[in-house]
Amino acid sequence: MLKRIEEFLHYLSAERGSPRNTIEAYQNDLNGLVKFAEKKNNFASQENPISRELIVNYLAELNERQYAKSTVARKIAVLKSFCTYLIDVGDINSNPTTNLNSPRPQKIIPKPLSPQHVDLLLSQPLKLETPEAVRDAAMLELMYATGIRVTELVSLNLDSLHIKPHPAYIRCVGKGSKERTIPVHEKAVRAIDRYLDQGRNILLKARLQQALFVNRRGERLTRQGFWLILKNYAKTAGIESHVTPHTLRHSFATHLLRGGASIRDVQELLGHANVSTTQIYTQLVDQHLREVYENVHPRAN
After folding, report:
1. Do 163 and 235 lie in a common domain?
2. Has 246 been annotated as catalytic?
């Protein structure tokens, strides 16, 4: 089965154009099934590389270990995709994942930062004068200015950026390889300009690199690298809530909606395929309005 998994991952990359982080996630999930089969001495033969019994027992163990519903649902989706591939290549005649129900993960309402906490977070790199700090200020400003995902941020190239002449914007490629154009406000443009003038060339040390944001080795900054950078600034800012790269995206969407932007406009900026994905932010806006109402209405207290 290991060989088939490798071929399946190559198929996802070469023929379906799946991004690297998706390939890595699929690989981890399928390797989990292989390890389970080996542990149970139930490794399927090449003639029958995967069975219904194996999958059911694997999912039962995940539930016993109290995996999150969202994680189990994702693993089932990966298994269904892999079994469809096995049918296509002729390894199996029937799909062992047929009628396999996925648990409905509970919708988690995102927790945005307040505008005050965003300001505090974005001010942290400005206290330092290193090339890395100049880069970090540009990344944080750009992420909050556009609401892009962390994968989209670190995937930006120099030619993704259009800041002269104004109005400034970026082009990024999101999920499903869909490209979208997002405006960038002047404050973020100034931070990017400063990075290009005072940070990037120092980090590159005359090396050629198409990536917009680079590390001290002159290589493209990774998602993990940005996460560590953000975590450090959140700590130095004294922000006690859990801050992740997605927190800035949540904050961007919530603050736009509270400011009066339409949900359709926010949907387009975020790159959501369905407006229902964006509508979760309206709950935060409704909650905010309720709090404002109760604080200011003369009869509410």
Report:
1. yes
2. yes
Q: What is the CA radius of gyration of the chain?
A: 23
H/E element, 171? strand 169-173
Q: Which of 16, 246, 264, 290 is catalytic?
A: 246
Residue 249 annotated to the active site? yes
Catalytic hit among 175, 178, 217, 235 = 175
Known active-site residue 166: no
Rounded CA-CA distance 237/278 in Å is: 29
Predicted pLDDT of residue 44: 47
Is 297 a residue of the active site? no
- Is 58 a catalytic site residue? no
Which of 149, 200, 250, 255 is labelled catalytic? Answer: 149
158 shares a domain with 282: yes
CB 263 within 8 A of CB 256: no
Q: Report yes or no on 102 lying in a domain.
A: no
Does residue 171 sit in the same domain as residue 246?
yes
CATH number at residue 75: 1.10.150
Mean pLDDT over residues 168-174, rounded? 89
Task: Give the domain extent around 59.
Answer: 2-88
Segment 59-89, tens digit of pLDDT: 899 888 888 888 888 899 999 999 998 898 8
Query: For position 46, what pLDDT does the model report?
Result: 46
Q: Does the structure show a pLDDT above 80 at 184?
A: yes
Q: Is 272 a catalytic residue?
A: yes
What token pair was written down for 22? 């998706």
